[in-house]
Specification:
Radius of gyration: 15 Å
CATH topology: Peptide Deformylase
Structural class: alpha+beta
CATH class: Alpha Beta
Bound molecules: zinc ion
CATH superfamily: Peptide deformylase
Number of strands: 8
Length: 163
């Protein structure tokens, strides 16, 4: 497994709509393993393939203390509630912002074997699912920040979970 370098804005790969995974071959398996390794190396809570320079619809999420979630071709199928959250992204280093997210989401996706899965997330998991699926659509959390006052610089030691 390899720790990949994280692409940061204004890298154009972060602005592309990522391609659907159609064949789950060994290169996709390697990508998944590298993404997990990279996410752990930088203590991230989630990572989307465009963040390591691969424009494919693959995301991994690991909420502290819980099992890693691997998502191929994830789609949000239902959302509920709205709240304001603070968020930070590995691809926007040194900043965090406040934005509105859904309280819970239901997602359908495929696992690494290609089997259809559905999951419901609330709280940090819901936030991570929305954040990573946004990445697959070329959207970065700062796009949801309503005004510049709601985006601020943070010192490395004051960082919150990054996605
Ligand atoms: Zn991010």
């Amino acid at each position: 497994m390899t720790v990949c370098s994280i692409r940061v804005l204004p890298d154009s790969v972060l602005r592309q709509k990522a391609k659907k995974v159609t064949s789950i071959d060994s290169s996709v398996q390697r990508l998944i393993d590298d993404m997990i390794e990279t996410m752990r190396a930088v203590s991230g809570v989630g990572l989307a393939a465009p963040q390591v320079g691969v424009s494919l619809r693959v995301a991994v999420i690991e909420i502290p203390g819980e099992e890693v979630i691997i998502l191929l071709n994830p789609e949000i199928v239902k959302v509920g509630g709205k709240y304001l959250v603070e968020e930070a992204c590995l691809s926007v280093p040194g900043y965090q912002g406040e934005l509105e997210r859904s309280v819970w989401v239901k997602v359908k996706a495929q696992d690494r074997q290609g089997k259809s899965i559905r999951l419901k997330g609330e709280g940090l998991l819901a936030q991570a699912l929305q954040h990573e699926i946004d990445h697959l659509n070329g959207i970065v959390y700062i796009d949801h920040v309503q005004n510049p006052d709601k985006l601020w610089e943070v010192l490395p030691e004051a960082r919150r979970e990054e996605l």
